[in-house]
Specification:
This protein has helices at residues 14-30, 43-49, 67-74, 93-98, 111-129, 175-182, 224-238; strands spanning 5-10, 35-40, 55-59, 82-87, 103-106, 133-138, 141-146, 150-156, 159-164, 167-171, 187-191, 194-197, 201-205, 208-211, 216-218. It is of the alpha/beta class and 242 residues long. It folds into two domains: 5-129, Rossmann fold (3-Layer(aba) Sandwich); 133-238, Beta Barrel (OB fold (Dihydrolipoamide Acetyltransferase, E2P)), CATH 2.40.50.1020. The chain is elongated and about 55 Å long. It starts with a strand and ends with a helix. Residues 6-122 form the Response regulatory domain. The modification 4-aspartylphosphate is found at residue 59.
Length: 242
Amino acid sequence: MDGMIRIGICDDNALIAEKLEALIIRYGEEHNIDVETYVYHDGSEVLEDRIQFDILFLDVEMPETDGIDTAKQIRKWDARVKIIFITSYTHYMRNAFAVHAFEYLVKPFNTAKVNMVLTEVFDFIEKENKSHDISLVMGGELKVFASNDIYYFERVRRKIKMSTTQGDFEFNGVLSEIMEKVKDFDFEYCHKSVIVNLFHCKRIAGADLYLDNGETLPIAQKRAVEFKARLFDYIEENFKLL
């Protein structure tokens, strides 16, 4: 992996923060990844520093500014940082998705658990950096977007809504023609009116598809089997562990 990876660690328990930092540094050394770590003991310290992290480990429960509130503030100015919550309780998952969390690490954690999460997030970042340009005509102008910056396309009334890391765009178009442009970049129909970027698909629960930006999309019953198989193949081909 090219370049330095900035990683923030925030936990009010100094021993846990130090242990996690040591495991991250060791992982970086073993996998030839340059990591730069920053340790904090409250969310307010992270917000005050305002560093652009690649990855941020956030304890959910802290005395002053907890992890959820910290993440909400960070998301106002940083859509790209991969937030990993540190928690003793898995019931925080719903709140984690609300602030676009990448993953969560349950206490007490060991080397194997931390390594598993680090493998997932580093693989994701590496894949994220290998994006493709997609050209679209909007309002008579040709605009170019990186494929990994696009979450999905949705037909809304007679227009196309495109959800991206830079916000939502709406333009005239036909969904089938959009599909022709993006099908080679790992986009797939999950519903007759929605084309989703498989890169941003996090998990499936019933007929709901959860994205890494916290949104939920419907999976059409008629497409469910085919879509799930396509997503599984994509994950298997592109990521070592998910």
